[in-house]
Amino acid sequence: MSKAVVPPAAGPRKRKAGVSATSATMAVPVPEDQSFAQRVIDWQRRHGRHDLPWQNTRDAYRIWLSEIMLQQTQVGTALPYYLRFLDRFPDVASLAAADQDEVLQLWSGLGYYSRARNLHKAAQQVVAEFKGRFPADRIQLESLPGVGRSTAAAIAAFAYGLCEAILDGNVKRVLARHYAVPGFPGDSKVAGRLWQIAEAALPGEGIEAYTQGLMDLGATLCTRTPECGRCPVAPTCKALEENAVSDYPGARAKRAVPRRETTMPILLHGGRVWLQARPPSGIWGGLWAFPELQPGIDARDWCHSVLGLRLEGVQALPLLRHGFTHFSLTIQPMLCRVADQAAEGVRSAEGRWLPLAEALNAAVPKPVRSLIEQVMSLESEFLLDNNHWPDSMKKKGRS
Q: Would you call 67 a catalytic residue per the annotation?
């Protein structure tokens, strides 16, 4: 993440450095290191990032939008999506008034689509409950869908100059190393310890530069392969002192990644493909995709018995593998060329025919877009060959 370092807003509330909101109720001692914060601030002002499009602003909408996009996404990947969103939705009111399908279409390819659905819901909540203005309070910001404690704190700091602690993935790595906090940061006890440290280390002033500096350190120097020689807090880094930087933060316990398989019939008729709307929640929620069949179900039989379609040919395309956070998916695409003119009868409230070029730009997940591109290539080959079936499809026969 990377945000603006701008002059403080009028009248920001400040918290005394080294005083944690939770330390009084926690038995674990919290380090009080005011020099840590000041060194981060000084470094950020000299060497940090200052020219990203969501910087140099107090516009909470722009800051919120970038914070959501940068959750589990690198700056370089999120940047073009951010610019397209701002061009189409310049303020929270325009985003709130949009159709979810358009929001998902602009998000398509960025992944973690619950972020886009929550983005839309949060915009509507800001308009309905807060009269179109993001609240200047971390707790109220946390009431918005998709906004957790760290994201709310970042918005509060950058938009309103409030002294709140952040703890995103990059910051967890910085603090875990600097204070030699053992364990995986995703564990509740370890996360609680890091939150204590994050609050204890807050500066008395300069919250914007400090917050941005932590983000920049984690993104540019304190990475998986750290550049400790350039780090402004290296002199007091406990992990460096122990010569054990690579041991922090602790890794997640290894576990087998579940594997799933599915068959996707790609119905093709007259240069169009048939897409179904996914359920509003879950994997690819609200997006458009090809139907999914359990392994072992014959695509030709399914098209005939469920959709009432006669196929002119079926072609198995190469397997496509896609990784999610908690499992991996192997897709067996089956290109199904619809023969009869009754293809329009497959229309339903859950599906629609789209020209290939239009489908490519629709709100579809990345694997589906890859399959559409492959079908477009095959379709071009098919047409150039005077509508003769490729040998691979002839071998499959007709149904």
A: yes
